[in-house]
Design goal:
Layout: E1 2-5, H1 17-21, E2 27-30, E3 35-38, H2 48-52, E4 58-61, H3 64-76, H4 81-84, H5 105-108, E5 114-120, H6 134-137, E6 146-151, H7 154-159, E7 167-172, E8 175-181, H8 189-200
Parallel strand pairs: 5-6
Antiparallel strand pairs: 1-4, 2-3, 5-7, 7-8
Amino acid sequence: MAVLINLKICDNDKACGGVAVCPTGAIYYDEEKETLAIDNEKCISCGMCEKECPIGAIKVAKDEREYEILKKQIEEDPRRTKDLFVDRYGATPLSEFFMLDSEDVANKVNSKNIVLIEFYNDDSIQCLLKSIPIKELLKDFPDSTQFYKVEITEALTNEYQIKELPALVAFENGRMIGKIEGYIDEDNKEKLMNEIQALKNK
């Protein structure tokens, strides 16, 4: 009948899985407006987009009554879009503040301070809502700790022996002291925080 998207919890990314699985193009990414969009004239209520969304932001209403209920739930959702859009481990980079060019990595890791670099590529990007904010990862580190996000290159993959993305690599005094490979989401935050703590204590 109709698709609704709760943009208060959706990162509105063109790589949306719901777009990828929609058989009719009812849900799509509008390049001009830079947002997910819906053409409910094309929706056949198959529910594939709803099943594909890992955070429950996409809902498919089977009739007009259900549509109005879902619409009201979204309108009354107390979460705020601005709270979602903070830089997170494994998610789309948002702030230029954390971004680092691949050719500058060697200079940055020679710092006397602890330097954490998250290596990623387009295929490793995950939903914001399921990802852990950078500020949480850094909360037990000294204020002098530096954090960067770097799009991986073949040279960096080889140099740091990275096998899985995203990869969080820690350096101190120019020496690599450890790394964490693979995406870890909010549901498994304790695991990631324990691994981060182990890096800090090396």
